Amino acid sequence: MRQVLIGGMLLTVAACGGGGEKAGSDTATPAGAAPAAGAAPTAMAGGSVTGHVKFDGAAPANPTIDMSEEAACKGKYTGPALDPVVMVTNGMLGNVVLYVKSGLPAGQTYPVPSEPVVIDQRGCLYHPRALAIMAGQKLEIKNSDPVLHNIKALPTKNRPFNISQPTEGMTTTRTFTTPEDNVPVECNVHGWMHSNIIVLPHPFFAVSGEDGSFTIKGLPAGTYEIEARHAKLGTKTMSVTVPADGAATADFTFAATGT
Fold it and tell me: What is the CA radius of gyration of the chain?
C-alpha cells in the first residue's frame, strides 16, 4: 500500500507488483491439489520395472540367409548370415518387447517421448527385429547399407507405408497415430528382412538386449501386468508392484516350445 496526494486529499491505494498475480497468468492451482482426470503427467520420474529374459534349453538353429547377390551386406559377416528369429546369447533372449499391458489409470494420457524409436537396416537385416513405439512418436528409419532397401509396413489400423531408400545414410521418419497390436515390416528387395512393431497408447515399454536385460522407466506407484512378447515364441505375463521412485523386478523365461 502507498499514500498519494490528489487535489489536497491524501488517499491510500494498492501498489502494483509485489505478491499480486502476474498479468495474463492462469488461475493458480492450490498446493497439493490433484491434477485433472486424464491430464498428462509433466515428468517421467517414478518407479521402474527391470529384469532379464532367459531362454530355457538349447537355442533353435536360425535360418541361413543367402546374401550372395548382396556382396556389401555379405561382407559384414565373418560366417554365413543368419536370420535372428530367436536371438539367444549365453542363455539370454533378445528382441523381446516388454510393456505394461494393464494397471494404468483408465483415461490417463501421457506425453509422447521427444526422442524417436530407431529401426536400422544394417547388414541387410532390421535392427532391432522387434520394437515398440508410442502412438504419435517418431519412427526413424535408417539405411546403413550401401544398397537399395524398400521398407513396407503393413498395419491394419494405421496408414501403411512403402518407402524406398536407395543410398547409404538415408533417414526417413514416419508416425503411427493409433495403438495397434502388431505392425509387420518387410523389405520388398530382400525377402528375408522382417521386423514387428507394437504401437502403444503409453510410453511404458522396452525391448530386451542381447544380454536379455530390460528396464521400463517412469511408472507411477502401483500394480501392473507386464507382458513379454516374442514374435516366434509367444507371450508371457507377470504381475508386479512398483513402489514410488523404486524398482520392481520381473524376470521371464521362454523355451523353444513357447511354454
Answer: 26
The pTM score is 0.80
Q: d(Cα 200, Cα 123) in Å, to the nearest integer?
A: 29
84 confidence band (pLDDT: 50, 70, 90): very high
Nearest to 99 by CA among 229, 223, 251: 229
Q: Which cell goes with 111?
A: 506425453
Mean pLDDT for all residues in the chain:
86
Band of residue 80 on the pLDDT scale cut at 50, 70, 90: very high
Kindly provide the residue ranges of all beta strands, DSSP E only, lying in 32-175, ordered along the sequence: 47-56, 64-65, 81-82, 88-89, 92-93, 97-102, 117-122, 125-127, 130-134, 138-143, 149-153, 161-165, 171-175
The answer to whether 99 and 216 have CB atoms below 8 angstroms apart is yes
